[in-house]
TrEMBL record:
It comes from Kipferlia bialata. This is Uncharacterized protein.
Length: 24
């Protein structure tokens, strides 16, 4: 099950980073 969370966490991190770039 841990392996299934890896892609989910990676997607969440990329989404958060994208928002941070939009809001300095």
């Amino acid at each position: 099950m841990g392996l299934l969370w890896l892609p989910y966490m990676a997607t969440a991190i990329r989404f958060i980073r994208s928002i941070r770039k939009r809001i300095p």
